[in-house]
Amino acid sequence: MTVDKQQAVEKHLFCFGHGYCCDYLGRALMSLGAWRVSGTTRDTDKKELLRARGVRPFTFSETHPLADPLYILRDATHILISTPPMEEGDPTFLMHAQDICALKQLEWVGYLSTTGAYGDRAGGWVDETSEVRPSTIRGTRRAKAEEQWLSLYKSNQLPVHVFRLAGIYGPGRSALDSVRAGVARRIDKPGHAFSRIHVDDIVQVLQASIAQPAPGQIYNLCDDEPVPSHVVIDYACQLLGIPSPPLIPYDKADLAPITRSFYDDNKRVSNQKIKTVLGVQLKYPSYREGLEACLAEEKGAIGPLRDYTQPI
Questions:
Q1: What pLDDT was estimated at residue 76?
Q2: Is 306 inside any structural domain?
Q3: Is the pLDDT of residue 2 over 80?
Q4: 20 or 304: which carries more pLDDT confidence?
């Protein structure tokens, strides 16, 4: 289910942290007509890029709140929060929670979190009813930010929805790109699996939620097939017609601490809720269809890149 043109009349999406996912969602909504999109960036140089995409830009960071939040947000009907959390929690919450709660016309608030909130499950399955018990700094901060935003649903009836995203990929940000850049490594940690999600499927889940708000709900966003990362890299090499990098045992791999932390969590994430509750049918149920689509878009086989050739 997606947002239709009738629903989209006179709507205004405001994105805190207007990056890759917000860029795709904003374009999808603006293509319907009558949707306006605004977004924040910490990089003033990116303001012109946002303007070129039809997005009204504002400066915001953990040290730079919106200059006049009640005026800037005065007619926002939908807010999407994609700002990276700090130790104290989400900067948007810390600086502008009360401003957002004061908005009378607000219909929907989305917070982009991570499946890292579940922590390590030794390869077991998790769903939205599973306990939140993060095992990394990133996961702990996201869990705190989730708690902050959901507290406003409980105390102020703010229409908050939490989206726990698996590894995000899409045009310009996939295994195809890391293989071409020569930085892809095939690390073998037996029994380990990653979940992932194509950005187009993130967009359709967000649109489905916008079309049928259910404040307080949490959704996992991932595809149907969690697999080891080395399998995905191998398939990307097959698509590109080049040899795969050698398989390196995990205990012999020289990995940066942040990379190694991704291997500390081992779980398989269920996506049944987005299908049964939101009626979403994934465009790319596995990495295979997703990578094939990325390559096809690059070659122009399935239409233009929708102006996403320089994702922000």
A1: 98
A2: no
A3: no
A4: 20
What token pair was written down for 185? 């490594």
pLDDT at 310 over 80: no
Task: Tell whether 258 is covered by a domain.
Answer: no
Which residue matches tokens 């850049």? 181
pLDDT bin (cut points 50, 70, 90) of residue 44 is: confident
Average pLDDT, the chain: 92
Model pLDDT, residue 4: 54
Spatial distance between the Cα atoms of 112 and 221, rounded to a whole number of angstroms: 10
Residue 120: C-alpha distances to residues 64, 124, 155, 198 (Å): 35, 9, 31, 23
- pLDDT above 80 for 306: no
Is 305 a member of any domain? no
Q: What CATH number is associated with residue 149? A: 3.40.50.720
Is the pTM value of this prediction over 0.85? yes
Structure tokens at 7: 């629903």
The count of domains in the chain is 1
Q: Tell me the pLDDT band of 311, cut-offs 50, 70 and 90.
A: very low
What is the reported pLDDT for 82? 97
Residue 312 lies in a domain: no
Domain containing 35 equals: 11-169+196-224+267-291
